[in-house]
């Protein structure tokens, strides 16, 4: 069953635009109704027992400005993803929610090490998520909808087992395209846990030709982006909004620092998540979020939801906000989506077909 994406009217033409979601956490996108059923099955106590009230609790917690309360939201979602049944269902519904959002390619970003409390092993949780993703794709196909998805295996940067998680990603990646694993990430608290602390993991991934994105430039500043790009072989930056700390721009004029100039000149993709970034004190409004200024300067910006449940959002909603509050045009949305396809952890020929057969004709059919 397809649910209407959060924050967008059912007749909004933006829903019809073809989209890509590169920064989309699996444990940040559960349906409230599903959470209630899964919690009842395992005896987990949730803050609310009705879907609407539970969704509001997540939104209020994420917008509270209280980091402890924000992190508590994930303690509930992760708790419901500790057995095969929960993982399969969450992954399947995650795919269907992408389809309802108009997404034709998405990467499910999640940390297998956080899902072992039910007795499953690392490889088993990866297989369970893959089973759910494939079930969602099959269900979408049966309904005449196309979507392709991949797993983005994530290590928690505050833990001390990133090499084991990197080896997990390599192991599944080497199984071939059917494994579903397309790349690697590190997530968790940025301050005090720099990317370079996980250099052995990144070196192993680099040598095994596994693509890497790194959460950087969200909570921590320009130094975290510098390490991700120059030391840890990152092909993309998760968030990266604080790259603006390395530039002095006023009314489109000014000077870029060496890091910002490198990110711009090399077109290193930035996985920006406007609504989520506002919740973590990056910009006060959508209108003054760095994404618009970075777009205007030519950075390879992409539009992402981050955590659909916590931010009450979708790619369609993020696009609508950028149009209504930051003056984006349909051409701007198309350019950012082209950036996302180009940055996808997929073979070149697949990305080229997506551009030619899905994205360009899809945008031509719709007027926002």
TrEMBL record:
Adenosine deaminase domain residues: 18-358
Pfam (any one): A_deaminase
Organism superkingdom: Bacteria
GO molecular function: adenosine deaminase activity; metal ion binding
GO biological process: adenosine catabolic process; hypoxanthine salvage; inosine biosynthetic process; nucleotide metabolic process
InterPro entries registered for this protein in UniProt: A_deaminase_dom, Ado/ade_deaminase, Metal_Hydrolase
Cofactor(s) listed in the protein's UniProt record: Zn(2+)
Entry annotated with the keyword Zinc: yes
EC number(s) from the headed UniProt entry: 3.5.4.4
NCBIfam families: aden_deam, PRK09358.1-2
Family: Belongs to the metallo-dependent hydrolases superfamily. Adenosine and AMP deaminases family.
Protein name: adenosine deaminase
Organism: Brevibacterium celere
Record lineage: Bacteria, Bacillati, Actinomycetota, Actinomycetes, Micrococcales
């Amino acid at each position: 069953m397809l649910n209407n994406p959060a924050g967008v009217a059912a007749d909004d033409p933006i829903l019809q635009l073809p989209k890509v979601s590169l920064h989309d956490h699996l444990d940040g996108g559960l349906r409230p109704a599903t959470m209630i059923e899964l919690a009842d099955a395992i005896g987990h106590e949730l803050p609310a027992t009705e879907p609407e009230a539970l969704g509001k609790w997540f939104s209020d917690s994420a917008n509270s400005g209280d980091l402890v309360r924000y992190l508590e939201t994930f303690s509930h979602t992760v708790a419901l993803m500790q057995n095969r049944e929960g993982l399969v269902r969450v992954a399947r519904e995650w795919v269907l929610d992408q389809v309802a959002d108009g997404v034709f390619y998405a990467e499910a970003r999640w940390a297998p090490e956080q899902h072992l409390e039910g007795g499953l092993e690392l490889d088993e949780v990866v297989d369970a998520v893959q089973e759910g993703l494939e079930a969602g794709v099959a269900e979408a196909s049966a309904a005449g909808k196309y979507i392709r998805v991949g797993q983005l295996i994530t290590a928690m940067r505050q833990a001390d087992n990133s090499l084991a998680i990197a080896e997990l990603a390599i192991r599944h990646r080497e199984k071939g395209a059917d494994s579903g694993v397309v790349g690697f990430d590190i997530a968790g608290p940025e301050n005090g846990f720099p990317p370079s602390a996980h250099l052995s993991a990144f070196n192993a991934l680099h040598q095994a030709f596994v693509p890497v994105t790194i959460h950087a430039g969200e909570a921590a500043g320009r130094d975290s982006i510098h390490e991700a790009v120059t030391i840890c072989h990152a092909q993309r930056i998760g968030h990266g909004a604080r790259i603006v700390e390395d530039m002095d721009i006023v009314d489109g004029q000014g000077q870029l620092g060496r890091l910002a100039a490198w990110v711009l000149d090399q077109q290193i993709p930035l996985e920006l998540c406007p609504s989520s970034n506002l919740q973590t004190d990056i910009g006060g409004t959508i209108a003054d979020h760095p994404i618009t200024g970075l777009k205007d300067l030519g950075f390879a910006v992409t539009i992402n939801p981050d955590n659909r449940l916590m931010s009450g959002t979708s790619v369609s909603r993020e696009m609508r906000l950028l149009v209504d509050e930051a003056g984006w045009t349909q051409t701007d949305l198309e350019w950012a989506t082209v950036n996302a396809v180009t940055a996808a952890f997929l073979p070149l020929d697949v990305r080229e077909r997506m551009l030619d057969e899905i994205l360009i004709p899809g945008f031509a059919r719709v007027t926002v």
